[in-house]
Fold:
Amino acid sequence: MRWVRLRTGTAETPIAPAAAAPAAIALARSDCGALWIELMGEPVALRPSGGLWIERAGAFVAGDLHLGKGSSYARGGQLLPPYDTIATLDRLEAEVRALKPRLLILLGDSFHDPQALDRLHPEDANRLRGLAMGRRLVWAEGNHDTRRGVSALGVLPGEVADEVVLGPLTLRHEPGPGAQPGEVSGHLHPCAKLVAAGRGVRRRAFATDGRRLILPAFGAYAGGLNVCDPAFKGLFEAPPLAGALGDGRVHPLPFSALCGD
Amino acid sequence: MDGAQTALPSRFQAWFEGRGWSPRRHQIDMVRKGREGRDVLLIAPTGGGKTLAGFLPSLIELAERPPRNAAGGVHTLYLSPLKALAVDVHRNLEIPIADMGLPITVEARTGDTPLAKRQRQRLHPPDMLLTTPEQLALFCAWEGAREYFADLRCVILDEIHAIHGSKRGDLLSLGLARLAQFAPHMRRVGLSATVNDPDMLRRWLAPAPGLADLVTGDPGAPPVVEVLVSQNEVPWSGWTARHAMAEVYQAIEQSKTALVFVNTRFQAEMAFQTLWEMNDANLPIALHHGSLAAEQRRRVEAAMAREELRAVVCTSTLDLGIDWGSVDLVIQLAAPKGSSRLVQRIGRANHRLDEPSRALLVPAHRFEFLECEAAKEAVEANDLDGEPARVGAQDILAQHVMGVACGEPFDLQALYAEVITAAPFADLTREDFERVVDYVATGGYALRSYDRFARLVKGRDGRWRARNGEITARHRMNVGAIIEIPVLSIKVASTRGQQRVGGRKIGEMEESFLEQLSPGDCFLFSGRVWRFETITGLDALVTPAPGEEARTPSWGGSKFALSTYLAKRVRRMIADRAGWPRLPDDIQEWMTIQQLRSKIPSEDEMLVETFQRGRRHFLVAYPFDGRISHGTLCQLLARRLERAGRQPLGFVANDYALAVWALQPMGEMDMDALFQEDMLGDDLEAWLDESFMMKRAFRHCAMLSGLIQRRQPGAEKSSRQVTFSTDLIYDVLRRHQPDHLLLRCARADAAQGVLDVARLGRLLQRIKGRITPVELSRVSPFAVPVLLEIGREAVAGAGAEAILQETADALIADAMELD
Structure:
């Protein structure tokens, strides 16, 4: 694996080690399609699934599962295919099988609505229990999130936490205001859009400037918010790099190549 | 005339005479058919008094109706594919009614009709109601529709040649079947322009398996069609016909009023701009296309009606519609692509039957010259192309079933019996029907987890009904088979405080075009150059940029593909050397050099040229079968060439030819094997499932079938704001239930429409064993036009993955350089 240092700022910005200067990100592409970056000096893999692999901590992180989104719409009369929860759990299980994490962190908005847990199919609940076997499962819900009821003890295994600190990294659901060096969050569902060859391509994406990282939504039906949206303004010290999810690989895209919706 | 006197009541006879007219034969025939209570299709050329012929029987019946105490229901329902036409017909009907003092009320009803008026129409129905197919779909979903239409005697369908071959036609056909249940005495009257297969329309019109009677109008004088031979050289490629615009302007000067038809809005803008630049005589020339603001289009139409304009540059928005007496010339800029469309457009000139319509065809490049000649021959031979009969779409059936349930509870067996009387659904099996009903009720998923959310529930009486009022209300907001392409309003930017906000709206444009612009880019719209500033919400803000150079849009070609009928004529024309001397010199020269350097294919063979140019190896094939099937063929060829290790890099297609280029030579390949029909099997399936065309088709099916509702009570959602992506749903559904109803619908649509797979199949069959490969040392004259399109046209289906990869690679390369 070969690491390159990538400028994310202007051409005048000197190239410097990533941890010290926000204007550069160290990154490497691996054979399995993941994109490795150094986040505050910590090597982490942005996985094509949309999840994050923190190797030294043996932790796999997935944000915004939105389980039960399909049935939430069905309740309101739009009968979306009921396979989203299955599809999301399939992907989560595949990652767990591949990486064998010691720690599985679900970064909030795991259920689409307050009643989604009640609608959860018993079989799907069993799969969630299975994921907690032999490892620590943490529901990093954030304060605003308790209404989702995941913490209803006894229904599902795992611990509930506002945030999780792993070395230089702090994992929480919602990005905090201003500069948050080392923060890994979700909530915003970033996606990136390119226009080329007469068409637009819009994909879920990681967004990072090497100091903080926002994960794309992991849930099968979760929509996306363009990283050019004002909601992302002020979160990054330099224009972020987008790691767009492609077929089995993560494509690093410079902010300058992206366009808004 | 004797027949006329016995058929027409004296009051009507006198009215005709008073206007200096005598009733035409087909008008009398229509009155007879009306008295006999027959379903009837009237085929007559424009200007033949077709609309009046359709209404005469109803006018007579209503005039002869004895006075009644209670107000009756609707007697005649008129459905037109165009709102404007319904309004215009209303105006025209008022004339005989007022002249003869008939006690008949006529009202129009469209989506624009004020709510109060629509409510009044429900309480006090007019004798004649003029509306659109979408309103009929809405009527079906009304409670009480059965009573409302109980007295209906006649339904008149206008311009059915323009609607039967589409999903709108499917929905209309189902609506008629429903209406027939409400109104057992209803008869059907269809009005159509000349078509090549009247029997197909007769079957479509009548309840299956019946056949409507046919009345044909007398043909008008044959049109006089000319192909413009420009003094300038005919270009090798392109679509603007700029080389001939001075001659077009001259033709406008010499006519009273000209309609200048083009195939796309961008062509319209370009042509209008060019004409305006050379408009030394200051002729009043206007522009009309579907993106312009509605008020502006209405202004142009009104000016035409007042005979104040000398020319209108227009797109298919004026193919159908209101008659303007003053038009004496139709100019078709760039090839018409099909003979029926051309005949329809020519019919817009000179609405007097005894004088010929005049048309001038202006080819934009060399192959188009041949195509225009072919079109001219086809018009002279009255050889029309047209939509074949179609199999009704099940997403549309799903929408209809939901609508029926919103109107009243239904019995499964009775509804099935009703649905198969709609011609497009005549072959629907009971099993498929029940699958559609299950889809409407529960989504049709193998995983039966939605039964408790069912939209349809079966009552104790065994009948199905909508689960609740909310579901009914939502459905009523979403009826119709028209998919609106995501558009943004184009507004002139103004500044309010620190904010840029949208001011006056000048029109609408596809999001897909606008997203290719960067702030500061200039483009042509509504006859002026604008600078693109930004997009805010659903508005694209622009500022005037007079004098700036407009950016040519990245797609410009015709949105219609060359029809099979014309293609065949073009092939014949090329093969027929005896006919060459009739062509202009530069075209002859071009074909002669082709003969010397490569080969002129015979009528039923397909030429395949291979040659090297730079480091690339090219394969150019000439199927002459339309850009859509060529594009699909390119995709499939590229897959095969990839497998054969030829390393294909790209491809391009136009209506006549296709080119693929690769790193390895392809000349020695077995062409019969390369173009084997079996590519329509697994290769097609595999490619299709991944392609964005399939995702788009799925999105449309999801909307039309009610899986996703475009409009929600309280807030109108634009497609930009749909909170979930149909692409995500597609991916999940494809993996978990690949045989789901909607996926089957989407595959059928993609194969039929965007990909034209059926036509490609016929093409591959036609060329089997008839491929003539020629290895060349350099590019041939015939290959030039298609090669000139490289980079100019977006290639449909360009891989999303490739786009991502390219940008990422560039980034990495950049980074590596610095390392």
Notes: Residues 41-257 of chain A form a domain with the Purple Acid Phosphatase; chain A, domain 2 fold (CATH 3.60.21). The longest helix of chain A spans residues 84-99. The longest strand of chain A covers residues 199-208. The radius of gyration of chain A is 18 Å.
